Queue: 2 jobs
Job 1
Amino acid sequence: MNSSEIRSTFLKYFESKGHKAVPSSPLIPWNDPTLLFVNAGMVQFKKIFLVEEKSPFDRAVSCQKCMRAGGKHSDLENVGHTARHHTFFEMLGNFSFGDYFKKEAILFSWELFIDFFKLPDEKIYVSVYEEDDETAKLWSELAGLPDKKIVRLGAKDNFWQMGDTGPCGPCSEIIIDQGRHIGCKRPGCFVGCECDRFLELWNLVFMQFNKDESGTLTPLPKPSIDTGMGLERISAVLQGKTSNYDSDLFEPIIQDISSLSGIVYGSSKDADVSIRVIADHIRASVFILSEGLVPSNEGRGYVLRRIIRRASRHARLLNINEPCLYKLTDSVINIMGDIYPELKKERERTQKLLRIEEESFTRTIESGLNILDDIISRVKKVGIRVIPGEEIFKLYDTYGFPLDFARDIAMDSGLSIDEEAFQKEMELQRQRSKGEEAEVKAWADIKLPMFEIEAEGYSVKTEFLGYDFLETNAVIEVVLEKGRLVDELKEGEEGELILNKTPFYGEAGGQIGDTGTINSENLSVSVIDTKRVNHNFIVHHVKVMKGIVTKGAEVTCSVDTQRRKATMKNHTSTHLLHKALRITLGEHVKQSGSVVSPDKLRFDFTHFDAMTDGEIKKTEDIINEKILENLPVKTEIMNIDEAIKTGATALFDEKYGEDVRVVTVGDFSKELCGGTHCKSTGEIGLFVVLSEGSVASGIRRIEAITAKTAFDYLRQKQAELDGIKSLLKTENPLDRIEKLINEIKFLEKESQKLKTGTSKDMIADALKNAYEIDGVKIVKMRQDGLDHNELRLLADNIRDRLKSGIIVVTSVNNSQGAIVCMVTKDLKDKYNAGEIVKNISKIAGGRGGGKPEMAQGGTKDIEKFNIVFESLFDIVKKTVTS
């Protein structure tokens, strides 16, 4: 069976058993900040298993895209060195949410394996948790497995738990014996051995307990089933292969890598490792890029960057020294594109980003790689296995060479790095840094006292009323000064306040925080900034202008209305801009950051090239058309899954709750957003792009202004244009400026001709006054005001007319004396321009030298320079005759 048939057979089998076929969720989890990437089939059902969400079905089956690279479940370092480790893989799984349990799960798995996949039952073993007599008995009764094929293992191998607390239970793995010729080949090799002979194929997890903080296990009222089987592994087994990389999921990719490198897979152990790394990593890269992620230096983007660069390095080990990964994207898409259509849709963007990242990597890391290779050679030569951390730190400090990247390369060479020494060097560098001396503001560390607040037992939750009101009454719940809980703030002091409710928007989602006032009868407080620290707290950074702030005080909160409304206009404009860019540039455009303030907006987005003037104009036109249409801006609270299904755009790096706020602009734009917005687009008034530029590989940035700020900007530009018209005395300044530029260029050329003697016969006078030594003509000439280039050009012109001889030209320019000497080719073996200039410069109190045909020198001593020029022939004569 090929992999497509295996995937289809699995899904159809469980559909026939009453399971709902659920599509794979994205690799990037929508609403789980605990994960970098989805790493198991159960992740999209996590809330159902935790009873936080009710499922519309009791049984489900899926083929889930998974990634294990970065975080505690990372297989990155093992990829390429084994037959079965991958970063990206597909997990086949069936799930029961309080419906069937152990008996049915075992029956389903056995029937699928024996009757549909036709696996030989004599090669099948199972492992069970050592205390799980029930599961052992079921395997014996339902599958007829003898006791010797039912292996009991400890909690490390056969007891699963979601976290330190919560749902957990025993698990049972179905294992195939691949034969004595596979693995360690030890006589005692059996289930539990780390080699590949007894290969785990399918893990059945029986969620039947809830574990509390004390470790006590309580039976769940409705036990559940979570199973997982890697498609790559079962495909290899069913296709008679002992390595996943020999299956049809990898074979075409490996063939293309071999074609690019000219190295046949299987011909070299080291080359095989590199080929497997590239094959695995190009699959991972194509899938992650298809979901809109871009390489970066943090979080998921950094994992992606590390995967791409690791593959690129292994390509270099195969002597592929130019970008090549983008050439392999079609290999992946041809295999997987029909199952995952987003791969085809994002093909062009994926190829461009891969090429950009590889080119960037080559430029920044090439020198570092050569140095690291040299370090590894030296370490091996002296017979040690640990690379000094100080050496790796130098690489990091000089070339930005990442530690984890160096670690990968060291491991490939059988070495490790002294990371303790590396970290010591890092700490010394931090201490040397000036930034280490800077005072850390309590406001910047406002997250720290939140733990103290919670630990003190405060049941504080700020209710945000700012969507509907710009002024509200409130009670001060918490008072902080420099990050410490205090009883009061006095006049002139700064601190932080947490209220029971507030109209002030706390900085989040790119929108900056509100400012304004908090007052009462004897109190006046200026709100300098506002931040949303977590889901519960909105913190107001304040300065007391009059009175004393105390906990429990009743106050009136007033937002700076003009500032807030300007911010709202800019925030709604970012939504219009996002959609307009997708229309102008293509659907590959995705938001990758923004800053919304009252003065302007900044919007970062994925795109590869600088926008043309025409593209910027088209984008502006689209937005201003929507402003003129005065489209209604509506907000509603929806379930996140429902919102996504209705077409709302979500940002991968944002953390969303179960219920989200959806902002809809007419029929033009729909996004998940917690920010504040206009009631209609007409309130924006006007939209103007100030600039467009690059901020990183594949990331562009637009800065823009709106409303009165945009109007004032255009009025200023009009005033500047009117001034130019008045100065040039014309209504067509562009034509007049173009004409002036051409005139300036002409005059500059004429000036250069005058200086270098090509427009009048100054050279003829110099040739006429030439001095002869032994039949060799020596021409001298002084033309002040020339720079070095112009002086060389003058010497060239004299040489062209002299045909044979020695030329010495001088010039005084900006209080510097310059000398150029040339010797025609026919005389260079007899006379040396470098020696002539060296002697002249030395006498003039300067320095000089050069080649036999041409040399130059100079001096700051103009008085000596003038004397030297008068006796130049004598100096040259002494030099050439000595």
Note: The longest strand covers residues 198-211.
Job 2
Amino acid sequence: MKRTLLSLCFAIFAFSQNANAIDLTKATIIYDKNDNALVCKMANVLADDIERVSGIRPKVSTNSSAKGYKVVLATQKFSNKHKELRNEWERFAIDSDKQTVRVTGSDARGLAYGVLHISEMIGVSPWYWFADVPVKKSAQVEYSENYVSKSPTIKYRGVFINDEDWGMKTWAQHTFEKELGDIGPKTYDKVCELILRLKGNMVAPAMHGCTGAFYSHPESQKRADEWGIMITTSHCEPLLFNNAAKSEWDKARDGEWNYETNKTKILEKFDNRIKETAEFDNIYTTGMRGLHDEAMKGSTDNSVRARTLEKVMAEQRAILEKYKGKNANSIPQIFVPYKETLDIYDAGLKVPEDITLVWPDDNYGYMKRVSNASERKRNGHSGVYYHLSYLGTPHDNLWISTTAPALMYEELKKAYDAGADRYWLLNVGDIKPMEIEMTHFFNMAWDFSTFNYSNVNRYQAQWLANIYGEQFKDDFQFVLDNYYRLAWDRKPEFMGYEMEWDSNENNRLHDTDFSFETGSAQKRLSDYDDIVKAYTYIYNNVESGLRPSLFEMLGYAVLSANQMNRKYLFAQRNHETGNQFYAKESKCAFDSLTVLLNQYNSILDGKWNQMMSKIPPGYTAKYHLMPELSDKPTDAYKLPKEQLHVEFANKVDISKLNVPSPFRLIEGLGTDWIALQMGEPLDENAKGSIDVPIEVANNADSVTVCLSVLPMWPVAYEKGNSIIMSVDNGSPVTFKNVFKEWSIEWKIQVLENRKEFIATLPLNKNVASHKITLTIGDPGQIIQKITYK
């Protein structure tokens, strides 16, 4: 029976079936023994995947004269077809006739992507192992396609396994790689297979002190290379050197990590690392910071620091040339202006033109900077380091992924439009349970043109429906929309309302700013209850074999977010009333979080045991704890006034505004899940105003407006975040979101995911109807809520 091809989201691949389809179970997979080693590996991977689908493993051979059906795999160097692929980056072509399917790659990874495209088409998900998505079984595996791919939108695409202390590390140590007791070659073999299947090409390995340094297990590099995956490193690992591991850098043995005072030892470490890894394809982080995630040691004068980093880079490039045997300008290198190094960059640091500037987000999804007009001319282009997971101030975000897909798209688009097409790295923590968001990221990096503001918020529901059934697409959309929306107002990790690494008052658990008096607390509880019911409906109605993967990728996050909110909101109500019913409900929610944790760790006979060793506590967080309860009303846990946000009774329905160009309504952003973008961020010619009708009392002399905006960063050092507002064509007021990173004002913006401006302006009593006029100041600002009184 002819196999129906999977419907890939937004036609990421165009394909066609025809009468030439051949049964792959009866084909011989052929490759040239002199071709790249990855080609041989992919021949066997394809055979394995066909067997996963059908139970029949086809032959793999280097004999090109084999009879019968054939699948011929070759890089362009070993093929006389598709000369247009020559010297192209990671492209592939598939040609089919009645006897043969040919996959030609412009290079080895291009060939691999072509093979894995076939695997996905016949029913093997990239997540067949790492998220247990069942293979779609079929006795016959008929396939035919004629297709030529483009080069990927982003040249280098990968993930950073980070803050692995409570997930990837404990799982590898106690479950998957017990013989080593660490994250090692067995784990990286699976990680690199996953990345390649997702059309990525690089990994930044786990690097915390709890984990053995990547190069302390030499086989790990070999496993990555066998899959064609390049090694890159984080902002604090120069030239592949992990100074967070004592095996790599021990202060007692090696001295201070200070280039100004210990240059010889530091350069010796760099030299040795490049010497031992020169045979492999890697992407090299240049510059240096302090130990692990600490600031650079030595002078605190950023101009002096800049001169020091310039010397460091020159030495690093000389080492690369020494062992790689080619000019530094042809070796992939990055510079990541992360935290204090951005200030050093702004102080005049001269980064060689061929090095890629990798702009970071603020660790919570908002780009801190993108390339300006001058930086867009650099030969090295630019890239992005983006977080779904983060450990740090003002609060960790390590547990479950709650970054809205439309926000990720909007911010990555901003960077891409500014030239960030060279390198995209996603911090995914332990990979699980961030499978959905990770897939979305890789598909955007592969072909960004297939996404836009109209479809980006609907991609994930469609992707899930492709796996679990088209009949559930609307249910998935409901669950995802409300899961992300509720987390937009407050992430589950932030529900304890503590600020880490702060004063004793700010660093303790508080009640929330959701109110049982106004009903916002009850509404939040009810909304979570609704998505739990919708998820449960899907879970109960899918085939039993699909349930483990559904729980891993979606259920654990949705159900746990619900219980975390119940724990804190019922504790708050107990504090307000002293009622023990609420105390019991809070305790029940706390216990339910443990039940969900145990369910995750026991699923599929414990395959993922200790991947959720605990709700990640980070180093100083308290949100995972059981809040104190009371037998009488108490204000002891009340939130400080400066953390209470303002919202007036009258609210503008942004979705009903008449929105002219260059303004845009964006679905999937903001507290009400639709937001107003005031022009494209990089469009310096974006001008204009939009009128917002309001209704006020007849005897009112003035109106007080609260404008809630996304806590964005200026697109460039010399730019700002401003919006101009007037009422009834009166004198305008300009709102500017000027903040200092690490300040209390900035921390509140991060935790609340908003910045609020309040102004009282006079009404024109000579007009019959009143309006607020919003005018573009700095293009790209996004308004999520307008309330007034």
Note: The two ends are 66 Å apart (CA to CA).
